[in-house]
Design goal:
This protein is of the alpha+beta class and about 110 residues long. It has five helices and three strands. Helix 3 crosses helix 4. It comes from Paradevosia shaoguanensis.
């Protein structure tokens, strides 16, 4: 039931998760896919078809930088946060926190009804 785990309401969440996870260390795309799954206790499972477009968009907009590195005979592209990406993360995280508080308030009120 992937639909239950990833409702359409979460459209901006991949960007938030990618920025947050890249805040502390650089990662390559598939590593981010796995990190998102692990960090959310498998509640949010995003495929490479979601993560890579987000990475490319964030890089185009200057929120991320990338570097190519050969690893085990293969080439990987590692992404890291730029100062602009840090500012963007702060803005998105603040908005998300405000939305989460609002939803939590409604859920709390509905329990008392």
């Amino acid at each position: 039931m992937a639909r239950d785990r990833n409702p359409n309401f979460l459209n901006g969440v991949p960007e938030l998760l990618v920025l947050q996870l890249l805040k502390d260390r650089e990662m390559y795309g598939y590593e981010l896919v796995q990190a998102i799954q692990a960090a959310t206790g498998e509640t949010i499972v995003l495929g490479e078809g979601v993560v890579y477009p987000v990475l490319h968009m964030l890089e185009r907009e200057g929120a991320l930088r990338s570097r190519r590195q050969a690893v085990g005979g293969r080439s990987r592209i590692y992404y890291s946060l730029t100062p602009h990406g840090g500012l963007r993360l702060a803005e998105i995280a603040q908005s998300w926190s405000r939305i989460a508080r609002a939803v939590a308030g409604v859920l709390g009120e509905s329990r008392h009804a």
